[in-house]
Amino acid sequence: MEKLELPVSFFRSKLSEAKTHFERALDCKHTEFDDLYPYMIEHPQFFWYKRYVAWSELLTIVKLCEELGIPWREAFTERQAGYIEKRVMSSRVLDEWYETNESPEHVGHQPE
């Protein structure tokens, strides 16, 4: 079997995408998950599940970066990196992910 070598930039790009996905889920903005399960918007538990899925994706990409020796911490604040290392999405993570009063409209730097 041929060994596939992916550039570090690939994993950094995936890390950035996962971070943006999680932050958009935190802010209740549209994500790919909404397209996959449009009927879930009608259910109150949807936003918790959507956030859980985005958090899991972020943790998976971080784990891959760690296993491959690719630095990931610089993409996050010290507090955010600490939450990721604890691996548990708690209400504290949801409430304190943003350390500043930055506007949610700027998350992912993508207009709706």
Overview in brief:
The chain is an all-alpha fold and about 110 residues long. The chain is built from five helices and no strands.
Explained architecture:
With about 110 residues, the protein is mainly α. About 55% of the residues lie in helices and about 0% in strands. The protein is globular and about 45 Å long. The N and C termini lie far apart (about 45 Å). About 20% of the residues are buried. The mean pLDDT is about 85.
Question: What is this structure's SSE topology?
Answer:
Blueprint: H1 8-26, H2 32-36, H3 46-68, H4 78-86, H5 91-96
Strand content: under 5%
- Helix and strand string, N-terminal first? HHHHH
Helix-strand makeup class: mainly alpha
Mean pLDDT reading: 85
The helicity comes to 55-70%
Number of strands: 0
| C-alpha end-to-end distance | 43 Å
Taking Cα atoms only, what radius of gyration do you get, to the nearest Å?
Answer: 15 Å
Low-confidence stretches: none
Instruction: Sketch the major β-sheet.
Output: none
What would you call the shape? globular
Number of discrete helical segments: 5
